Amino acid sequence: MHTWHWRTWQELPYLTCSLLEPWQHGFFTQQFWPRSPTELREILQPTAQVYQVRQVHGSQILSPSELESDQILDSAVPSPPTADGLLSEQSNQSVWVCTADCTPALIADGRTGQVAAVHAGWRGTAAKILPRAIDRLQAQGSQLSDLRIVMGPAIAGEVYQVSTEVAAKVGATALRSQMLDVIPAPHPVESLLEALYQLPNPPLYTDSKPGHARLDVRQVNALQLEQLRIQPEQVAIAPYCTYQNPEYFFSYRRDNRKQVQWSGIVSKG
């Protein structure tokens, strides 16, 4: 069982996970707002090169070599490139994502020391952004058995109301192909939802509002990882909800304000 630890920096709280202990990392709380990753790296590794992107709820993953030299955020470029994930290529590179209900996922390779940071909202999850990031790491030499994946604080399924169409679109990615094969094409929403409710650990909750359901995005991502045959001990999910823990986290769904908390991890050689 992986454990989560509250750390403090100048009396401000942030989270780490035992699964990522060999790497400098942190899931930072709203108390650090409005500090940028360039400032937050002082807490993790002051000498690390900082990389972040302008997130657009897509599925693109970028590496430092794919960024123009003048787009590195250490130089305070006002308009970084658009993507929703970053992966390192060398040691001492810190990669960052920001969230306010979506899932921040940090990935680390126990053999190579390389890392990735992913912003997985429902749109990115529907596009399988986490498996896409893992594909990129594999292209750099990672083996699935060496990966450790940690999903930080995000809105919990029991309070995340979405339309049944969104629930079906996102949830379908958690179903194995043989399950989809028995659902008539095009897949009716009701049949997809029923198949999802039948899973051992369903990523859905019922909702009293017609045409709606409650969606657990982190659980959908966990099921996508399971499809890749990543073992449960390689995955950790934070026991904190951005919506239900206002003392620590911003929540766009709760407050309708564009304020975020950052999550970052530093690669090692």
Element order, helices and strands?
EEEHEEEEEEHHEEHHHEEHEHE
Distance between the termini: 27 Å
Main β sheet profile: 6 strands, mixed
Q: What is the count of DSSP helices, taking H or I runs of 4+ residues?
A: 8
Fraction in helix: 10-25%
Rg over CA atoms: 18 Å
Gist of the model:
The chain has eight helices and 15 strands. The strands form three sheets. Strands 1-2-3-15-7-4 form a six-stranded mixed beta sheet. Strands 5-6-9-8-10-14 form a six-stranded mixed beta sheet. A three-stranded antiparallel beta sheet has the order 11-13-12. About 2% of the residues have low confidence.
Protein architecture, described:
It is a single chain. By secondary structure, the protein is α+β, with helices and mostly antiparallel strands. Helices cover 23% and strands 25% of the residues. The chain has eight helices and 15 strands. The protein has helices at residues 37-44, 122-126, 129-139, 164-171, 177-181, 189-197, 217-227, 252-255, and strands spanning 4-9, 12-17, 25-28, 49-51, 61-62, 85-87, 93-99, 103-109, 115-120, 147-151, 161-163, 204-206, 212-215, 235-237, 261-266. It has a six-stranded mixed β-sheet. The protein has a six-stranded mixed β-sheet with strand order 5-6-9-8-10-14. Helix 4 packs across helix 6 (189-197). It is globular and about 55 Å long. The model is unreliable at 73-77 (pLDDT under 50).
